Amino acid sequence: MAESSRDILLRRIREAVQKPAPQPPAPDFGMPLHPRVPAEELDIAFVESFRRIGGEFYYCESEEHFFDQLFIYKKEKELNNLFVWEPELKKLLHQGGIVFTGDETDFISNADAGLTTCEALIARTGSILVSAATASGRRLSIYPDQHLVLARTSQVVADIGDGLARVREQHGDKLPSMISLTTGPSRTADIEKTLVLGAHGPRSLVLFLLDDATSPA
């Protein structure tokens, strides 16, 4: 006697439940969450991420090129008060003839912009890793209306973990009292979902990226 369609279906169900269900492959928890960016493309990946989050970027082929870029930027933005507190940055700007304020004179009332260095540049998020380890302290990257950063291509790392590892290599057990990730200019949309820049920090984040791949400068 031929099986009916119902009998065939029931037989297949019985056969299926007698077999163990196929299991998905076990996840490899050792694999990185995000695909790794080739080392030779890290700087490009960083710039793309940095500009995507609203950062303003200037590529500098040399220190002289940096001086020119900074001079033009100051003139275009009418920055009369550029505060610089790190000794090495002061020395560098003196060489380039860039006018700046090297102390805290009228800082609270005239903090147009502050120029600092950084610990690392994070390619995946476009973030700038800063700390309180330099003479810029905690305030110069937060209080002024514009935060200007001088960094080098050798400081670009793939991810946040790589940036923190770089900080530990640099400072050892004497970690800075403040380590912060700056991801784009300060912004909030808490009030009526209206985007406001500069509510809790600098309204502009500007990076001058000095290429030190071929020069130790």
UniProtKB/TrEMBL annotation:
InterPro entries: FTHF_cligase-like_sf (IPR024185), LUD_dom (IPR003741), NagB/RpiA_transferase-like (IPR037171). It comes from the Bacteria. It holds the Pfam family LUD_dom. Coiled coil: none annotated. Residues 106-209 form the LUD domain. This is LUD domain-containing protein. It comes from Hymenobacter profundi.
